[in-house]
């Protein structure tokens, strides 16, 4: 269903890192996590700096749903305060899925390259309501798929 509605991303923008700011995409994700009051996220890799912002959101009482790979679940369990009732953690076995960050303010989508590595230099992002709704829909569709 989400693929059929890719046209909704027509108002999204492609953000790319460059030689002046090689961490541009990560900084955008961190900023989105810092500004969020709720979060739905498919996080296919472990990046420690994101955990600080996710833990801050947990402490502030924001509702958080995380979908992470089973092979790094222990890392998340160690670094995140998952004992909180407002955190829902789901693990999956699919390799090279995608990165998806959906907050109440922004949608961020990151993909893997053909060689199987995450493309940390490019993300698609939007603050438009239809893109945020598309991201929420993709999140729910993916969650339903892995829970079958």
Q: Please give the radius of gyration in angstroms.
A: 14 Å
Question: What is the total tally of β strands?
Answer: 7
User: How many helices?
Assistant: 4
CATH class: Alpha Beta
Distance between the termini: 16 Å
Derived structural class: alpha/beta
At CATH level 3, the topology is Endonuclease, Chain A
Number of domains: 1
Given as residue ranges, the uncertain stretches (5+ residues, pLDDT < 50) are none
Q: Main β-sheet, in a few words?
A: 7 strands, mixed
* CATH homologous superfamily assignment: Endonuclease Chain A
Helical fraction? 25-40%
Word description of this protein:
By secondary structure, this protein is α/β, with parallel strands linked by helices. It has one domain: Endonuclease Chain A (Endonuclease, Chain A), CATH 3.30.870. It has four helices and seven strands. Strands 1-7-6-5-2-3-4 form a seven-stranded mixed beta sheet, sandwiched between helices. Helix 3 links the parallel strand 3 and strand 4. Helix 1 packs parallel to helix 2. The longest helix is centred in the C-terminal third of the chain and has 18 residues.
